[in-house]
Amino acid sequence: MSKFTQHAEKRTEDLSKFMVGLINGEKGAQLVKDYNMMTENYIPSDLLGAFDYLFDHNYDIEQIKVASNKLINILYKTLESYPAIDIKEHSFLHYLKVDNDKAVAVLDSMKDDIKKLNKDFSTDLLASIKKGFEALLPFMNHYTLKENVLFPLLEQKWEHSQCVKLMWSFHDDIRNNIKRTIELLNPENFDLKEFNVVSSKVYFNMKTIIFREERVLFPIILETIDEDDLHKMLVNSKEIGYGYINDKDIVVEEASELWADNGIINLSTGQVTTKEMEEIFNHLPVDMTFVDADNTVKFFSSPKHRIFPRTKSIIGRKVQNCHPPESVHVVDQIVEAFRSGKKDEANFWIQMGPKFVLIRYFAVRDADGLFMGTLEVSQEISELRSLEGERRLLDWGDE
After folding, report:
1. Calpha distance 309→375 (Å, rounded)
2. Rounded CA separation 107/129 (Å)
């Protein structure tokens, strides 16, 4: 092992011990001194192994989040001064950076009104601030894009990638706190104290995550991910879109995909071509995702009105990594119940704004009962719930 590698491992080990010390309640000032936090030349990649260590040793994610915030705060100037490779214009990372800049502009635009509100209550100020927080809602697509395009690739390419679990959890915190902040901006029962607490979390977490993206993730990506993979992420990003960037403004040269052949698929009940099979899946009024017996995502359908975002980046990804860390235990519970034969299906239904979504999981087994994987089927059923009586005749007149 080279001295360079040994030194890198020592830095990662020290960062791990620093965060473990914080979690265990040790004094931060002494830990900073013990691990040379202000003098050692830590680099972005040192953090990846440190976060992996905490996840591998089953520390609670809320504890990891608190410790990571303190770590980033201590290393702020060090990470900010790291000589990262320049981001190419019109690249995937470039558009993420543009998105971030626009989000920061929205946050900054509300600061004066929030200060005024703390001095003198005004319904006009409430309305203005509420409009500002509502303007952050499109940016939530930025997080969805990262979770479905960026994170899967990092899991495939990086030896240490559990930092994405941490970032995803922060994404969910931000989503929930923005939603709650908007709810609080009601003049009839406005609570200034709670508003200040929740809105401050939005500001802190959004700006912290932007810093982590641009000063930790992006520099490592530019050093470790090749141009082909960066281009694939740009292509896949168009399926989900960004927060504030119009899809029409993103021009991507995408090679047309050709079928290797137009072969016939022989099924027990007939024959179809590969193209016909794909279009059959895509015309069903449901989202479908198939995960094999090894918990690897193998296939998803692409209906016209997809409920949950999916991109090709998730193919080959472990299903546990396709969900927020807080809900992984539910995924594991379902899959293990299917694998053991205790259960054959699991059903959930949720309200998503005006949509009422039915989510069903089915154990896929062969004729001998051998577990082959899990099929997720999601459907928006608001219209179905409202059906009454019967319709036995064709009637397109009112549709």
Report:
1. 16
2. 10
Q: What is the mean pLDDT of residues 236-260?
A: 76
Check pLDDT > 80 for residue 73.
yes
Cα separations in angstroms, 369 against 31, 136, 145, 344, 393: 56, 49, 37, 11, 41
Does CATH place domain 92-249 in 1.20.120.520?
Answer: yes
Round to whole Å and give the CA distance between 109 and 73: 24
Neighbours of 288 (CB within 10 A): 19
Asked if CATH classification 2.60.40.230 holds for the domain at 286-385, the reply, yes or no, is no
CATH 1.20.120.520 domain span(s) along the chain: 92-249
Residue type, 69: N
Q: What is the pTM of this model?
A: 0.76
Unique residue bearing structure tokens 């309200």:
351
The sign of the CA dihedral 282, 284, 286, 288 is negative
Do residues 322 and 376 make contact, with C-beta atoms less than 8 angstroms apart?
Answer: no
Task: List pLDDT tens digits, range 308-348.
Answer: 888 888 888 888 888 888 888 899 999 999 999 999 999 99
- Beta-carbon neighbour count of residue 188 at 10 Å? 5
Residues in the chain: 399
Is the pLDDT at 6 greater than 70, yes or no?
A: no
Q: Which has more pLDDT, 104 or 239? A: 104
Residue 371, both tokens? 């577990």
Helix intervals (H) in the chain: 3-23, 28-34, 44-56, 61-74, 76-80, 92-119, 123-134, 140-145, 151-157, 163-184, 192-212, 218-224, 227-240, 274-283, 328-340, 382-385
